[in-house]
Amino acid sequence: MSADTLVRPDETVDESTDNDTPKVFHYVKKDRIAESAVMGTHVVALCGEVFPVTRSPKPGSPVCPDCKRIYDMMKK
User: Fold this and answer.
1) How far apart are CA 74 and CA 40, in angstroms?
2) Are 6 and 46 in contact (CB under 8 A)?
3) Could you read off the pLDDT of 55-70 as tens digits, one per residue?
4) How large is the greatest C-alpha to C-alpha distance in the chain, in angstroms?
5) Could you tell me where the beta strands, DSSP code E, fall in the chain?
6) From CA 46, how far away is CA 8, in angstroms rounded?
7) Which of 19, 46, 55, 66 pairs with 27 at a CA distance of 20 to 30 A?
8) Do residues 29 and 36 lie in contact, with contact meaning Cβ atoms separated by under 8 Å?
9) Of 57, 50, 49, which Cα lies nearest the Cα of 22?
10) Rounded CA gap, 63 and 19, in Å?
11) How many CB atoms lie within 10 A of CB 7?
12) 3-class DSSP state of 25
């Protein structure tokens, strides 16, 4: 694992389903969010999911359980 800055749950990005409804939001490197949203490049979440940023989470949005578990372990 690198020491790069990671995004907190309220700043995560999503993986979209086929109908453009977010399934869950993932933890990704903060510096990649804007680049992905503007350029359409893909980001890699802590859990390994690869996707382009298409939406921002709202408070209470579902967070990927694998990303949350990994993030919590990194904080210790």
Assistant:
1) 28
2) yes
3) 888 888 999 999 999 9
4) 37
5) 13-16, 22-26, 42-44, 50-52
6) 12
7) 19
8) no
9) 57
10) 19
11) 23
12) strand
- Residue 9's Cβ-count burial label (10 Å; 0-12, 13-18, 19+) is middle
Nearest to 43 by CA among 72, 3, 15: 15
Token couple for 39: 């350029």
Q: What is the pLDDT of residue 13?
A: 47
Tokens of 49: 């999911």
Predicted TM-score of the model (pTM): 0.66
In this prediction, residue 3 carries a pLDDT of 52
CB 10 within 8 A of CB 57: yes
Distance from C-alpha of 23 to C-alpha of 30, rounded to nearest angstrom: 20
Measured distance CA(70)–CA(18) in Å, rounded: 26
Domain ranges for the chain: 9-75
